[in-house]
Specification:
It is a single chain. With 200 residues, this protein is an alpha/beta fold. 20% of the residues lie in helices and 34% in strands. The strands form 3 sheets. Strands 3-4-5-6-7-8-9 form a 7-stranded mixed beta sheet, with helices on one face. A hairpin with a 3-residue loop joins strand 3 (36-39) and strand 4 (43-50). Helix 2 packs across helix 4. The longest helix is centred in the middle third of the chain and has 11 residues, at 75-85. The two termini are 18 Å apart.
Length: 200
């Protein structure tokens, strides 16, 4: 049975939730510098503003209080959010090697010992767990499935997260999918992007 909703976390901090009529009002009322969160019984996602127009995402398993950070370009903000939330940061989920997504990995790995730094490209700083399409692992009780979506970069990975039965899944798309389009084709073709957006 399919979930009723899929939360898609895309750059610029916008959260798409299919069949949710109030989403436009939520987008219009938020600003980039504002930290916000999306919560449900099994997981919580904090949207952390980064740089001038980007976001990092702190994914928290509500049962175990274990956490992962998606694209931690500003490590000091990540560590502050981890302390404020009282969670244990164990994992970095890196979507791709561009500096505005992975540029904080090495510093964060020095600030928080024992981090597992995931990604699909050897050009990612501090990488110690290379992942590919269909790879699965856990963040606490949350299930992570890696989706290989090359085109913006040749090693781009999206992370599909599921938790308790009946709860909405989430996906972190990096620069594959934006609110109003898709990422630039730096290292791929239109066919690659079509497959990433339609077939995967």
């Amino acid at each position: 049975q399919m979930s009723r909703f899929l939360r898609v976390f895309v750059p610029l901090g916008h959260v798409l939730r299919t069949s949710f009529a109030g989403v436009q009002a939520r987008w219009a009322s938020s600003s980039h510098s504002e930290q916000t969160s999306v919560a449900q019984p099994d997981m919580k996602v904090l949207l952390l503003p980064a740089l001038q127009d980007n976001y990092m995402y702190l994914l928290v398993d509500e049962d175990t209080r274990e956490a992962a950070i998606v694209d931690p370009v500003e490590p000091d903000k990540v560590v502050a959010a981890v302390k404020k939330e009282g969670v244990k940061l164990t994992t970095v989920l890196t979507t791709h090697h561009h500096w505005d997504h992975s540029g904080g990995n090495e510093k964060l790995a020095k600030m928080v010992s024992g981090l597992t730094v995931c990604g699909g490209d050897d050009r990612i700083g501090a990488l110690n767990k290379k992942v590919g399409h269909g790879d699965k692992f856990k963040i606490g009780n949350l299930n992570v499935k890696c989706l290989f979506t090359p085109c913006h970069t040749s090693g781009h990975i999206c992370y599909y997260i599921t938790g308790q039965e009946g709860e909405d899944p989430a996906v972190f798309t990096g620069d594959t999918l934006f609110v109003a389009g898709c990422g630039r084709f730096f290292e791929g073709t239109p066919d690659n992007m079509y497959k990433a957006l339609v077939e995967i």
